[in-house]
Amino acid sequence: MKKIVFHILIATILLAGCKQEITSTLYVRDITEVISNKKPLKSSATIKLEMLTDQSCRKKEESITKIISAFFMKLEKTQCIKEGSDTYYYAVFDLPVLLISGSKVNDNYKGGVSVQLSKKEDNRTEIFLTMNLELLSTLDNSLRSEFMGSGGISPSGMQIKIKINNDDRETYRLYTEGSFLDGEAIISRFGKEVELQKRDESIIMLSDVSVSALLGRGTTSFTYVGSVMPIESEKTQPKKK
Asked: Whole-angstrom Cα distance, residue 188 to residue 179?
């Protein structure tokens, strides 16, 4: 079994303003494995929190790990790293990937964030991101308390990018709406699809509305990312009369 690898980055300027970014990579073969086996997979992810200085990062490294450990599960490889002139708190954590329970979000996962999949009759697999709002609220309050002046977790400065990588032999069709697809703005109800040949990769960047929904600013705590379907499956679908 190929392990799902998610590269997730969350950058927050603690003490001064808010800048947050999440980036992940999801592989087609892992999506199909979760669907076919009907069992969750444990993915890996990385988190980075932007700090003002290297000194402040090293001073707060232990307390940051303690604060975020309930939301980002099984933190390891925690450290302070430099990227150019910027300093980040860095860690690796577990991220569950599982099936949606019926028509509802599956709450049976540990930690504050998950990827959830839903198989449709036409062989499409829809991809969602979900968050545990209770743990999110605790994380937000803890960050604000630990770092005076911090904006905490806010959708205003958050950017979420999901890379869909086709590591399968078949060609897949990737669809999304209400987001950016490879840099192009795709409005809701007028979605766009692209073909992913073997080893092709496309990037979906969520809109502000989607990020706000994910963080519970609306009536839900999940957001739609997109869907994938093998093109060969389209040929087997019955023609509409």
From this structure: 8
| Angle between the N-to-C axes of helices 133-146 and 54-68, in degrees from 0 to 180, rounded to the nearest 10 | 150
Q: How far is CA 14 from the centre of its chain?
A: 21
Instruction: Output helix, strand, coil percentages for the chain, rounded to the nearest 5.
Output: 25, 40, 35
Q: Using one digit for the tens of pLDDT, what is the confidence trace for 132-165?
A: 888 988 988 888 887 755 667 777 667 788 899 9
pTM summary value: 0.84
10 phi/psi in degrees, rounded to 5: -125, 115
Cα 138 to Cα 67: distance, rounded to the nearest angstrom: 9
- Residue 173 near residue 194, CB atoms below 8 Å: yes
Contact of 26 with 58, CB cutoff 8 Å: no
Residues with Cβ < 8 Å from 113, sequence gap 6 or more?
71, 72, 95, 129, 130, 131, 132
How far is the C-alpha of 52 from the C-alpha of 89, rounded, in Å? Answer: 10
What SS3 class is residue 164?
strand
In 3D space, the residue among 147, 128, 134, 144 whose CA is nearest the CA of residue 210 turns out to be 128
User: Which residue stretches of 52-194 are H helix?
Assistant: 54-68, 133-146
